[in-house]
Amino acid sequence: MNIQLRGFDILHHPRLNKSTAFGEAEREAFGLVGLLPEGIESEETQIRRVMMQLGHKTTDLDKYIYLSALQDNDETLYYKTLMSDPAHFIPLVYTPTVGEACQKFGHILRRPRGLYLSIARKGQLKKILQNWPEQDVRFIVVTDGERILGLGDLGVNGMGIPIGKLALYTACAGVPPQFTLPITLDVGTNNEALLNDPLYLGLRQPRIQGEAYDAFIEEFVMAVQEVLPNCCIQFEDFANYHAVPLLERYRDRVCCFNDDIQGTAAIAVAGILAGLRLTGGKITEQTFLFLGAGSAGTGIADLLVKVMVQAGLSQEQARNRCWLFDINGLLESSRTDLADFQKPFAHPHEPTKDFVAAIASIKPTAIIGVSTVAKAFNQDVIETMAKLNERPIIFPYSNPTSHSECTAEEAYTWSQGRAVFASGSPFSPVKYGNRVFVPGQGNNVYIFPAMGMAIFATQAKRVTDELFIVAAKAVAEQVTQADLEVGLIYPPQSDILKASLHVAYRVAEAIFDRNLAGVPKPDDLHAFIEAQVYQPEYVSLI
Q1: pTM, two decimal places
Q2: By residue range, what is the domain housing residue 15?
Q3: Which residues are marked as active site?
């Protein structure tokens, strides 16, 4: 390698730093002698020290802070640690811990990461993007911080989400980290507590809306196309009234997707497809009721409609099997307060604000929670579903854990162990009667990193809904009979890299088949995907 840096500069470069793993020749060649203890350690010994130090941390937030510092100091060791036990570390670097980290982001910040594009710098976004040291960025995860998980408007504190998502691109699907860039768009915040917090790091002004907001987003998207022309944009945690229009505005113009809409939809479809192996019946025979009618709920419903149409229903027939319920009650045809993206799911029905009454009337085979309302799936809800269905499908998908519509224990207990369960946040195994159930986590981590690897490998020009259906089916087909026997309807997170590469292969195949790729199709697609995978191993600097 042609390394120009020496001494302290290498030790402060997270992609070059190996800390105590630098060999004798490297220490001599790059002026590191004396800057490190004499002991030369293996990566395994370094990981042992990381695990020991993590063991001394008393809270998950403390562990998050420690791991963030490790990422800033020694990127290779950070990813080697995460990939050594992904099921253990995913909840620490992303949900649910990242929710608390975002709430306290200005208080726990050690070292800024990514780019902050402020509305105060409008007209300069192209120049600011050029400040980023990597010229070949393939993925941007971007948020404006207005709807962070179920926590609401966190302003620039929402930067924890793009950072965490992109860490999982690498840890779960092997996307090389140098090709990723987290970005927060600072357009102000309406969160009074943050505006009054002396440690808040963003603009201290109300959120920009309307034409000024739209023009700022347009400047950002077009600046990315000019400065980083091979980049795919993942929109993340935008408020509903921005998220849906943004996706519609840009999905056919640039390479982009919205994980809250399309990724959430894909993981829900995957859970339904796998769950049907437990309940029996075809997807065209199911009826779905959503608690929550925002971008996530309508996104899942839209993708389910496409899957049911593929299976033989007309679009009208498929839509009639999807019902939504929000803070103002059931979406039905007499409602006059609905957004355009909600109207296709407003069917003829008597108005009701009683969710249990809606269940009794509609008789859904599955309820899907994307409301962020904790405990909304109460005992009456679960017991009503269990009366209507031998194996009721119960999916409380809201994040973080404190906003989950019910716990795994509640779902299994109130359904007498008959629920087919998956949640957005992780829950521990549940003992009911003489059985132990392993709750599935309907986490987008099965989707967006794999989608990222497929886009990275193929240099895809566009990302379509069809690709998310392919991804959903690829996740579901990996669920084994042994998984199903303990109630698990997603592949175990302990083998997430293998699962993600299988999904990436399927999606890449679809990208090539639909002429969306920017590179020629290789003879051996499996080998082609494998060759792109990042390996968290130190390389010799000499």
Answers
A1: 0.93
A2: 8-90
A3: 94, 165
